[in-house]
UniProtKB/TrEMBL annotation, chain A:
Origin superkingdom: Eukaryota
Role of this protein: Phospholipid scramblase involved in autophagy. Cycles between the preautophagosomal structure/phagophore assembly site (PAS) and the cytoplasmic vesicle pool and supplies membrane for the growing autophagosome. Lipid scramblase activity plays a key role in preautophagosomal structure/phagophore assembly by distributing the phospholipids that arrive through ATG2 from the cytoplasmic to the luminal leaflet of the bilayer, thereby driving autophagosomal membrane expansion.
A GO cellular-component term linked to this record: Golgi apparatus
Biased amino acid composition, Acidic residues: 841-850
Transmembrane stretches, start-end: 60-85, 123-141, 287-311, 365-391, 403-422
Protein name per UniProt: Autophagy-related protein 9
Keyword Cell inner membrane: no
Membrane topology: Multi-pass membrane protein
Encoding gene, per UniProt annotation: LOC112247030
Automatic annotation (TrEMBL), chain B:
Assigned GO CC terms: Atg1/ULK1 kinase complex; phagophore assembly site
Entry keyword Cytoplasm: no
Organism annotation: Oncorhynchus tshawytscha (Chinook salmon)
GO molecular function, one term: protein kinase binding
Family: Belongs to the ATG101 family.
Localization annotation: Preautophagosomal structure
Sections of the chain in a coiled coil: none
Leader peptide range in chain numbering: none
Keywords from the UniProt entry: Autophagy
GO terms classed as biological process: autophagosome assembly
Pfam families xrefs: ATG101 (PF07855)
UniProt protein name: Autophagy-related protein 101
Entry keyword annotation includes Mitochondrion: no
Amino acid sequence: MAAHFDTEYQRLEASYSDSPPGEENLLVHIPDGNKSPWHHIENLDLFFQRVYNLHQKNGFTCMLLGEVFELVQLLFVVGFTVFLANCVDYDILFANKFVNHTDSSKVTLPDAFLPVDVCGASIRDNVAVMFVLMISGVFWLHRLIKFIYNVCCYWEIRSFYTNALKMSMAELPYFTWQEVQARIVEIQKEHQICIHKKELTELDIYHRILRFKNYMVAMVNKSLLPVRFRPPLLGESVFYTRGLKYNFELIFFWGPGSLFESEWSLKPQYKRGGNRLELADKLASRILWIGIANLLLCPVVLVWQILYAFFSYTEVIKREPGSLGARCWSLYGRCYLRHFNELDHELMSRLSKGYKASSRYMNCFLSPLLTVVAKNVAFFAGSLLAVLIALTIYDEDVLAVEHVLSSITLLGVCITVCRSFIPDKHLVYCPEQLLRLILAHIHYMPDHWQGNAHRYETRDQFSQLFQYKAVFILEELTSPLVTPFILIFSLRRKSLEIIDFFRNFTVEVVGVGDTCSFAQMDIRQHGHPAWMSEGKTEASIYQQAEDGKTELSLMHFAITNPQWQPPTETTHFISQLKERVQRETTGDRQTLTSLSGSEPRSLIANFLAGPPSLASLHLGRDGSLTDHGPVGVNDGASALRSLSVSSTRGSCSSAHRSAGHASFASRAMPGSSTDARTASSGSSVWEGQLTSLVLSEYASTEMSIHALYIHELHKQQSGGELSRHTWHRQDSDDSSDSVTEEGGSGGGNPNPRNLIPRSHTFPISTPISTPGPIPSSNSGPNPDRGPTPGQEVTPLQSNSQRRYGGNTDSVGPGGRVVRSERVPMGGWAEQGRGGRHPDTVPEEGSEDDMPPNTHKVT
Amino acid sequence: MNCRSEALEVSVEGRQVDEAMLALLHTILLHRSTGKFHYKKEGTYSIGTVGTQDIDCDFIDFSFVRVSSDELDRAIRKAVGEFKDAMGNGMDGMGQISLEFYQKKKSRWPFSDECIPWEVWSIKVNVVNLANEQERQICREKVGEKLGEKVINIVEVINRHEYLPKMPTQSEVDNVFDTSLKDVQPYLYKITFQITDTLGSSVSTTMRRLIKDTLAL
């Protein structure tokens, strides 16, 4: 540049004090001063999680106490075990050896204890014991440090509650999470917790708290995780334990070298399709190492599990031997049944409501053979027991005879077990109805269960979700042994699929970071045509969530968070569905008495009327009888209508006070045991809380009806053709093989070759509504495929939201997802890079063609 | 995460690196600086003036405006110099320099003060190698044009109405602004750089994360 413009606008050197005369009066600013400590929080994920945890644990003190006791318990378990193993002279206890007492002949407990020095020596000599002690010492110290760290962190959260949210710790248990959340949303306007947007939405908070859980739910939904096995003798079974889950999370989310670089962002190389094979190799070797580490640590973990199980369950078993026969929702079940964006307490209360019906359902299936055997065993055991007890009553010296006491105990246990196999004579079961009732609460079930409720196959499959507690404990105990092998042999083979999954289903949302795209609950992206989103969805089979998860999750979220404002098309879907449901329920009133209505109507009628035994009672009831006695159909339906018509909170509560009036619709449902939180404050007199609780009850009822309705509609729609919705999706193992050779990523399909469009054909063969739809699977065999039509259209994106699978979304100002072009995913970043390999003068526009890295600035 | 991130990317010749970097960094800082605050009684303050200065580049057909503060200029030149040294005088390579604006937050005793970033600008640099003088001439113009675009981009971003730390009171001014310079007062900033594709984060951050993760509930 030849021409030098000498334009140096220098500061005025003269006025060094920087205030020309009179300026003091002209320009005076007042600092904002509003220095709340809560603006601009660094790690919002952690922050919201802690806020949620503190709420779930009922405040700071409860949490603190709980943690302290846990620490003490740990010390006790280890200390007591070591003591029992080394410091007790069992010969004295069993009276094999006599104690030479001078004064009395009674053996006291302290006699059996070895002296401290002997005991200490024996501990010191025993290498294994020292090893265990050391390990647990390290473990305990770790817990202690963690505890102290947590106390500091949660103290901050506590002051957030009291100062910013204006909720004192004493009142905290009486607030529902929705209320806490509403306040957080409110104070965002004032404090700017999150700097990306002016206002937070409920979905943002959920996304942050449940980021990883959503991924897990999606992976289970797409049958990506190896949790189903076919061991030789046991048949098809599910193995998913806490240990396994921990390892999965370690590998994917937070362990060293995991796929995520921080809580909120996937590592950039995993977002690009180019070196997926390489990354898959890396992941596979990492899984191998973690598997080996598991194998090495297995003795330690095993000992720990056994000790823990022993101390936590023996007491329970002694107290109520039946408890082992009781059931619980399996870990897999919780993953399978969970909606996207469903918090723990929501899931738990839903599942607990379904518990009773589920156990009744499971009790329908008592094998007649076993019953006969059990009856006879119980008879013989009972007679023996009776004799022994009679003898004891006659003379208690009988008890002193060796083994009499223990045989009495054993016989007692035996009888209890047998009795659980003998059905109650006075109960009548109707499995189909029960299953429907269960469905109303758990919201998901494979298609082929309907109509097959009475079959053993259905029962067995249901028992994978709802297992015996004993089985649960047993699985937990064997988990340390089995986990390494699952990791090494089954998960490792899936590494490529996993890499593809994370790339295809991760989406960057402004203000939230990388989340699972399923969790956006976008019908268009992930809807399933067989689940009400016919015509609205554009998802390929690979992208569709199975079992109607997207649709049901969306309904669930919209119902639990009425203030949430979904994107327009979604709103449309929701309102349409609500309208239909409402119409059906209204129609019910007329058709109810005859019970002649076809599927959905009679279904809802049945559902609202409660179990079959109650149905007849309610049938004759007309609409005017709402204010006394049990709640009938009309009551529930009308309350529901009022709810769905006025979904804003204010008008709702008033509607409820009149319509609901101490009669929750949920009472129509048997087994709707409210969760602890509801129960605890149900008795409290606070009007406000009460209404919000009533609201949440209504919401859950409404959701139940919607779930039933959607399922019913789905059943009608899909008709005979159910092939795709197989419960097992057994192919998951086979497909992993096919994947490794074909490089495709069709995890959840019976028949990937036919159903999943291969990437090199797909972009051409699909109708192009938006330029260049995404192929569902990546270009495995030919990663360097030439630029496809969609590629040229990659312009500068507005960049608020990007989908790394290739299609590109952006979130508009209100957090709405605005769609822009979709791009095929095979290594576009790399092609861009190749385009401007630094050999020549950088051509014009070359930078602009590389979407991900350039020009975030728009 | 709770911070905006903006990315820029430029391809330049080896000798243009520092000028290009200076141009971009100075442009950003020009908009992220205020005059010195002078606090008065009753919690009010007045703001001093900021001088600006046109700078012409030697190797690029480009000139830019910067805050006429020699101290600030020195600090940035130093950082850019280090960056250039780290890139080496090798023929071509990749690097990333990032300018991070943060604010400090006082924490209670067991933890040290947190520095929470609210805006990060990362500038990716590709160094290309040119064969002859003619290409250099073309490059000189092209890079100039590109830089012009980037400056417009930067200004657009800054013009958006987005989060900025609130104006502090006198006691807290150090938590938001860098008050060490005597003639200008930029927001607290930090310049870091990364060379080539060391895609994985550095060892120290991994360790820190590991510890934090194990401690988390």
